[in-house]
């Protein structure tokens, strides 16, 4: 039976935890608001870039002569997985769902005899994946989305990927990240970014080109234009992944902290009830002692 | 009112500008080109430089410095995608010059061809920024 003092201390400590979790919830909520706004504002760039790329691909004579970022190395032996997680925990299943999916992919790909390398964006993913896949991690990055998702780090990552791809370190690159659905749900998304999947583009692009009957004049040439459009598109894809991931992280944290705050409230109620019962029991015992003492006289 | 087309400047962070325009001059990789309503469709890469929005009588309405970008022109619209874009009147000389000297230093320190290429590009962008500012101040 815990003493009254123990219970009082316990209540105080749960209360202070509750204060922390509810403050974290507020912070996450306001960050989420900003993250959503910036994801919204980033959308037109992506849409227009895809439109341009689709138009180029649709008007291209053949894909064989296309830059490697589009046509690939022609082989499919080694994979690079970019796992996008957060730098901090306390956000429910946000990081662990990415880690789970990454592990699943690694096992599946290696089962097919492929070589797999890992690039971790975000400290949490690296910390966990390092335990069993240390040898596969080529590099990891931290604080990428410290003050929201920015374009510059996305461009740096894209550049890094391009250099590795050109050096032949991998044939296919996929990103694994959380897509923001709502504050309570995130969806793990797996997307291939190198070589850029043309099929989906070409399908949409052909319709549009046919509709406008437009034959584009290209300046400088097709090769050069694609040569700079593709890297820009790669940066944009990664930027989009970072934006989605950051918004998801804030959403997940907000929900997790809200649950924690509610749990703390339940716990405080229970503890307070127990405290009152214990206190009353103590008073009753004392009274009985006094009364029976008086009767004995 | 003269005929217009829709002109947009979009950066990764936001839609910077979307307005009807009568004429726009764009710094294409192969040289500046003017876009009027009904321009034949084209795609072009851009060099760092100033996008000018003009009236039919050539009076300049707005000047925006862009780098690392593309332009898509169709008969009814013109879209500029740029990784960086800033209104020329918002550039300060100090910042532009600081950037230029940083670019010079980076080029001096560059030791691999890859880094060197990057530094050279940065230098070109910084120079273009100062040129844009000079041209703007001259009016």
Name its key features:
heterodimer; A: 297 residues; Helix Hairpins; 2 domains; five-stranded mixed sheet; 7 helices; elongated; B: 139 residues; alpha+beta; ATP Synthase, domain 1; eight-stranded mixed sheet; 31% helix
CATH superfamily assignment of the largest domain in chain A?
ATP synthase, F1 complex, gamma subunit
Can you tell me the CATH architecture of the largest domain in chain B? Sandwich
* Terminal Cα span of chain A: 32 Å
Taking Cα atoms only, what radius of gyration of chain A do you get, to the nearest Å? 28 Å
Mean pLDDT of chain A: 88
CATH superfamily of the largest domain in chain B: F0F1 ATP synthase delta/epsilon subunit, N-terminal
CATH fold label of the largest domain in chain A: Pyruvate Kinase, Chain: A, domain 1
Structure in words:
The complex is a heterodimer of chains A (297) and B (139). Chain A is an alpha/beta fold and 297 residues long. Chain A folds into two domains: 4-26 and 256-292, ATP synthase, gamma subunit, helix hairpin domain (Helix Hairpins, Orthogonal Bundle), CATH 1.10.287; 32-255, ATP synthase, F1 complex, gamma subunit (Pyruvate Kinase, Chain: A, domain 1), CATH 3.40.1380. In chain A, 65% of the residues lie in helices and 14% in strands. Chain A contains seven helices and six strands. Chain A has helices at 4-58, 68-71, 94-111, 123-133, 151-166, 198-212, 222-296; strands at 78-84, 115-121, 137-141, 172-182, 185-194, 217-219. In chain A, strand 1, helix 3 (94-111) and strand 2 form a beta-alpha-beta unit. The radius of gyration of chain A is 28 Å and the shape is elongated. Mean pLDDT of chain A is 88; it is low at 209-213. Chain B has 139 residues and is an alpha+beta fold. Chain B folds into two domains: 5-88, ATP Synthase, domain 1 (Sandwich); 91-138. In chain B, 31% of the residues lie in helices and 42% in strands. In chain B, strands 1, 2, 3, 4, 5, 6, 7 and 8 form an eight-stranded mixed sheet that branches. In chain B, helix 1 runs antiparallel to helix 2 (113-138). The longest helix of chain B is centred in the C-terminal third of the chain and has 26 residues, at 113-138. Chain B is globular. The mean pLDDT of chain B is 88. The chains are: A alpha/beta (297), B alpha+beta (139).
């Amino acid at each position: 039976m815990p003493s009254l003092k123990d219970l009082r201390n316990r209540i105080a400590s749960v209360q202070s935890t509750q204060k922390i979790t509810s403050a974290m919830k507020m912070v996450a909520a306001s960050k989420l608001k900003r993250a959503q706004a910036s994801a919204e504002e980033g959308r037109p760039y992506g849409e227009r870039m895809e439109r341009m790329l689709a138009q180029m691909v649709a008007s291209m004579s053949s894909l064989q002569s296309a830059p490697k970022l589009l046509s690939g190395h022609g082989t499919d032996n080694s994979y690079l997985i970019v796992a996008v997680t957060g730098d901090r925990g306390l956000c429910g299943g946000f990081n662990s769902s990415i880690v789970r999916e990454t592990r699943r992919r690694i096992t599946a790909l290696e089962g097919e005899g492929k070589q797999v390398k890992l690039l971790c964006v975000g400290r949490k993913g690296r910390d966990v994946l390092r335990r069993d896949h240390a040898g596969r991690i080529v590099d990891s990055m931290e604080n990428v989305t410290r003050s929201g998702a920015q374009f510059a780090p996305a461009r740096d990552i894209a550049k890094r990927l391009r250099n590795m791809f050109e050096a032949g370190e991998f044939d296919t690159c996929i990103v694994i990240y959380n897509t923001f659905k709502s504050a309570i749900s995130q969806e793990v998304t797996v997307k291939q970014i190198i070589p850029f999947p043309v099929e989906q583009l070409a399908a949409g692009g052909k319709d549009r080109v046919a509709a406008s009957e437009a034959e584009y004049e290209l300046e400088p040439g097709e090769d050069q234009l694609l040569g700079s459009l593709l890297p820009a598109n790669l940066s944009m894809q990664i930027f989009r992944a970072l934006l989605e991931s950051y918004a998801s992280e804030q959403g997940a944290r907000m929900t997790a902290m809200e649950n924690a705050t509610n749990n703390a409230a339940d716990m405080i109620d229970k503890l307070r009830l127990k405290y009152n019962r214990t206190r009353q029991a103590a008073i009753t015992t004392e009274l009985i002692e006094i009364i029976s003492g008086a009767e004995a006289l | 009112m003269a005929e217009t087309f829709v002109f947009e400047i979009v950066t990764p962070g936001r839609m910077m500008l979307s307005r009807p325009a009568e004429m726009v001059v764009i710094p294409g990789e192969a040289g500046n080109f003017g876009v009027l309503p009904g321009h034949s469709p084209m795609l072009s890469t851009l060099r760092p430089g100033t996008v000018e929005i003009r009236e039919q009588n050539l009076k300049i309405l707005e000047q925006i410095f862009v780098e690392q970008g593309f332009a898509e022109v169709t008969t009814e619209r013109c879209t500029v995608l740029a990784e960086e874009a800033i209104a020329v009147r918002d550039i300060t000389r100090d910042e532009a010059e600081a950037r230029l000297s940083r670019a010079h230093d980076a080029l001096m320190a560059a030791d691999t061809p890859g880094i060197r290429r990057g530094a050279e590009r940065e230098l070109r962008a910084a120079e273009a920024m100062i040129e844009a500012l000079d041209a703007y101040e001259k009016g």
